[in-house]
Amino acid sequence: MELLDGQLASRAIKDALAIQVAQLKTEGKKVPHLAAVLVGNNGASETYVGAKVKACAEIGYKSTLLRLESDISENRLLNIIEELNDDPDVDGILVQLPLPKHISDEKVINAIHPSKDVDGFHPENVGRMVQGLPTFVPATPYGIMLLLEHYKIDTRGKHAIVVGRSNIVGRPMSILLSGNTNPGNCTVTICHSHTHNLKELCLQGDIIVAALGKPEFVTASMVKKGAVIIDVGITRVPDASKKSGFALKGDVNFKEVAPLASYITPVPGGVGPMTIAALMKNTFRACKERNDS
Ligand code: GUN
Predict the structure, then answer these.
(1) Per residue in 200-227, pLDDT tens?
(2) How many angstroms is it from 138 CA to the middle of ligand 1?
(3) Is the CB of 96 under 6 A from ligand 1?
(4) Does position 167 have pLDDT exceeding 80, yes or no?
(5) Could you give the percent of the chain with pLDDT greater than 90?
(6) Is the per-residue pLDDT at 293 higher than 80?
(7) Tell me, what's the pLDDT at 292?
(8) Closest ligand 1 atom, residue 279 Cα
(9) How far is it between the farthest Cα atoms of the chain?
(10) Domain count, the chain
(11) Are residues 149 and 268 in the same domain?
(12) CB contact at 8 A, 163 and 170
């Protein structure tokens, strides 16, 4: 078993971006600027947005964090997005999800200009991804593709089982793995809460991507020997022995599954850092396209 070390792979990507940013600076050009919007005070969202802003600083990007009250009106948030769309200094906009219940995710995502949609959630960008056209690919599945690439995992013709069908991970992941690309060219089965025989399907998987948000759901009895295991889950589970009061658990029972796997991502330190690296790549691209055209 070999660990798919997201810290290591993301470091390589961020270092390469930092060199490109330094080059922009020496040429007197604008550096990428990411605007992150955080509504309310969800602990996990605070951590994720904090990590994104920190990565910007490490690489040499500019970032702006807009912290908004949880009771902000939908209209006010849409106006703020409009202002960011119109701000020529801002290259990328991300609104951290989930949003409070009184705000429509769909309206907010649709309000972000597609050229600044570094999360790749806007329907125009999703459509481009489905057609295999150049676009912003959602950061978590993009990060997983970069991780597979970094470790030169042979995916061609393999049967990939994607567990979970969210717009953020499962669906785009299934599209990317089935694409005529490298990594890619998998035969993909996408599973969800209504899937019959989930265990039997998982047992057929040469690659399993677990993205359902249920701690330690994938157990040894569901995994074929030699499978590649990608664990997207990162749930906070109460744990009195930790200073924070919680432990982070993946969707895979790592202890049980690791001995069977050829490659497996740890949690934390697997997919999470790759998501950030992918977002940084998207932000660089947004800046380049804005300023080269
Ligand atoms: N919430 C969980 N994952 C993501 C993500 O990739 N982007 C945003 N904006 N919110 C998220």
Answers:
(1) 999 999 999 999 999 999 999 999 999 9
(2) 9
(3) yes
(4) yes
(5) 99
(6) no
(7) 83
(8) 6
(9) 58
(10) 2
(11) yes
(12) yes
Mean pLDDT of 21-37: 97
Q: What distance in angstroms lies between residue 64's CA and the mean position of ligand 1's atoms? A: 17
Active site residue 225: no
At 43 the pLDDT is: 93
Exposure class string for 11-29: b at 16+ Cβ within 10 A, else e: eebbeebeeebeebeeeee
Domain range for 245 is 139-272
- With respect to residue 49, please indicate whether it lies within any of the assigned structural domains: yes
Ligand 1: does its nearest atom lie under 6 Å from the Cβ of 155? Answer: no
Number of the ligand 1 atom closest to the C-alpha atom of 119:
7
With a 6 Å cutoff on the Cβ, whether 140 touches ligand 1 is yes
Tokens of 190: 């996408």
Catalytic site residue from 91, 96, 206, 249? 96
Alpha-carbon distance of 31 to 18, in angstroms, equals 10
Say yes or no: CB of residue 117 within 6 Å of ligand 1. Answer: no
Predicted pLDDT of residue 228:
99
**Structure pTM?**
0.98
For residue 9, pLDDT over 90 is answered with yes
Does residue 167 sit in the same domain as residue 263?
yes
247 CB neighbour count, 10 Å cutoff: 14
Is 96 known to be catalytic? Answer: yes
Query: 119 C-alpha vs ligand 1 centroid, how far in Å?
Result: 7
CA distance 110 to 124: 9
Q: What is the pLDDT of residues 265-284, one digit of tens each?
A: 999 999 999 999 999 999 99
Helix (H, G, I), strand (E, B), or coil: what is residue 123? helix
